[in-house]
Amino acid sequence: MSWLDKLYRTYENNTDAIGNENDDIPLLPICHTTQKAHVTIAIDGNGNFLRASVVPKPAARTIIPATEESAGRTSGTTPHPLCDKLQYVAADYARFGGEKESCFGSYFSLLEKWLETDHRQPKLKAVAAYVGKEQVISDLVKASVLYVDENTSKLVNEWPDKRNAPEIFKQLGGGYDNKGKAKSWQADAFVRWSVEIPGDPQPEVWLDKRLWQSWTDYYGSLESRKGLCLVTGAEDDLAKQHPAKIRNDGDKAKLISSNDLSGFTFRGRFTSAEEACGVGFRVTQKAHNALRWLIARQGRRDGDQAVAAWAVSGASIPDLFVDTLSLLVGARGEPVPSGSGYTAQQTGIQLRKLIGGYSARLGATDDVVVMALDSATPGRMAIRYYRELTGSEFLKRILTWHGGCCWRQYFGKDKMFFGAPAPRDIAETAFGVWRGGTFYIDEKLRKATVERLLPCIVDGTSIPCDIVESCVRRASSKNGIELWGWEKALGIACALFRYHHKERNYDMTLERERNSRDYLYGRLLALAEHLESRALYVGGEKRATNAEKLMQRFAERPYSTWRTLETGLTPYRVRLNAKRHGFLHKVQTELDEVVCSFEADDFTSDKRLTGEFLLAYHCQRAALRGEPGQDANNTDDISEE
C-alpha cells in the first residue's frame, strides 16, 4: 500500500490546488468526480427557468458531487446527486422519446435527502424546485437547445443536414452504428446548473466551494463500514468501491476492484473483500484524485499507458521523458529555439545549473515517486513500474542519463543540440518504419519500448542490447530515409552506444589515439565519403557517394567493402589532383595514417562492425567539416557516477 500512502500524502500537501481552474484536470475535492457537460441550464433562486446553452467543448469538464456507486458506474441507474444526464434530471425524459430507463425518482430522492441535511444552500433548493416542475426537456426545446420531430414531438436522433446541424448535434453526434445501435444523441446530454441569486458572485454550481464542502460533509455522515485502513493503520470508514477515471474522463479501469462476489475472487483465501484490502474511504478518494491530477498535470500518456513522476512534497521535478534541449529550455518556460541549441560544453553547464535549481526547491530526503500504469482490459489496470527515491537520488540519475547518453543530435535544421534523446524518439528510431517523412511505429511496441527504457533513466541500468543494436542497424544505412531522418537516427545510435559502453569513456571529439579496429574503420568510411563528395562538388555532380550507398554493406563486411570503395576513389583522386591538390594531399595523408594504425589481422578481418564505427564516423566527419563545438565538447564532467 506504499503507493496509496504516497498519493494520499501528496493530496494533503497540495490542498491549495483543489479546484484550480488553470488545471486542465483539477485536483478534486473528495466525493467528487468530473464529467463532460453538454448543456448549462440557468435558473433563478426560486427555481424559475432563465435560459440554456450548449457548453463549448473546451469548457465542458465539470466538477460534480458523486457517490461511490455513481463515480464508478459503467451502466445501471445510480444517479449523481446534482448534475447528471437527462435520463436522471428530467422527469419528462420518457415523454420526449428517451429510450433508456428514466431514473428521475432516484435522482430527486437523493437530492432531497442532501437538501434536508443542509438548508443553508439556496442553490440546492433552487435546483430541487426547478426539476420538481418536471419540464426540463420541454424548456430546453423551447430554448432551441434540443430539437424535436414536428410530427411525433419526440427528440430527433439525427439531423438531416450534418453541415448545418445545431450545436448539440456537433457535441453528441447521433445516428446508428454498424450494428444498428443508436449512438449518443440529444437524450444523452449531460446537464449542469447555474443558479443566479442576487449578491452571489458564483452562480455556477460546479465551482461553488460551499457546495463541495456541503456534499463532502453530508456523504461522510452516512452509515459506513468501520474497519482497519491498511494505508494509515487506523480505524476508519472503509471504501466500498474505488474511483475510476484515472487516465481520462472515459477511463473505466480501476487499480483496486472487488465487485466479483460470486466467482473465484475470494474463494480459498478470504471471505470478504475487506480481508484482502481495507482502505479508508477518504484515503482512497484523496489518493486516486491525486493520481488523476498528477497524470494530467505532469504525466505522460501513450495509448493506455500513463507514467507519472512527482515529489510528494509538491515541489517541481524534471520531466523524465523529454530530450536534453527540451528539458533545459522547458524548465524556463521558453519555446525550443531554432537552429543550433547548446554545444556540449554549454549543455554541461546548463544541466548543472538546472539540477542545482531543482535541488534548492526539492529537499535531499524528500520522497520522489515514479509510477507507470497500463491496462490490458477496459476494467482492470495494473502498476507496471514503481520506484520510490529520495530527491537527491532522483536528480543525480537525471543528471547521469542526460550526461552519459549525450551526443550531438540533429532533429532537423530547427533543432540541433548536444544531449540525450527522448525515450519516444529512441523507440521510433529502433523499431519504427520510415513512412511519409517520419518514423512510424505500432502504438503497443512504442509504449513497451518506452517502459523498458524507464529503468535506464530512473535506476541507471544499461540500455537493453536489442534497442541499442536496432538503432545501430538503422543508422548504418541511408537507403530509403530522408537525410534529416538518417542524421537523427545516427545521433541517437551514437548516444545509446556511448551510454551502453560507459566503461570505454568515449569522447564526442575525434580520438586520434584510439586504435581499435571498429573505430579506425569508422574513420576510413568518413574520409572516403569526404573525399568523394568534394570531387563530386568540383565536378558539378549531385548524387550520393559510394560510401553512403555501401554503408550498410561496409558495416557487415568492412574489409571487402573497403577494397571496393578504395578502388572506386581512383577517378576522384585524379580529378582532385588537378583542381584541389592541397585538399587531396591532406585527406590522403590522413587516410594513410589511419590505415597504418591498424593491426594487420584487424585490417584484413571481415568481422561485422559494432556501433563504435558510427561514433568514429560521426566524429571524423564533424572534424573534417569543422563543425562548431568540436574542440570543446567533452561532457564527461556532466555525469556524477
Shape: elongated
What distance separates the N and C termini? 32 Å
Question: Ranges with pLDDT <50 over ≥5 residues?
Answer: 335-341, 631-641
Strand arrangement in the largest pleated sheet:
3-2-6-5
Strand count, sense and barrel status of the largest sheet are: 4 strands, mixed
Give the strand tally: 16
Alpha-carbon Rg, integer = 32 Å
Class from helix and strand fractions: alpha+beta
Question: How is the secondary structure organized here?
Answer:
Elements: H1 2-13, E1 32-36, E2 39-44, E3 49-54, E4 61-65, H2 68-71, E5 84-85, H3 86-89, H4 104-117, H5 122-131, H6 136-142, H7 167-172, E6 190-196, H8 209-220, E7 225-228, E8 235-238, H9 273-276, H10 281-298, E9 300-302, E10 305-311, H11 324-330, H12 344-361, E11 367-374, E12 382-390, H13 391-404, E13 407-410, E14 416-419, H14 423-431, E15 433-435, E16 438-440, H15 443-458, H16 465-475, H17 483-500, H18 517-538, H19 546-549, H20 551-556, H21 558-568, H22 570-579, H23 581-596, H24 600-603, H25 612-625
Parallel strand pairs: 2-6
Antiparallel strand pairs: 1-4, 2-3, 5-6, 7-8, 9-10, 10-11, 11-12, 13-14, 15-16
Helix pairs in contact: 1-10, 4-5, 12-13, 14-15, 14-16, 14-17, 16-17, 17-25, 18-21, 18-22, 18-23, 18-25, 22-23
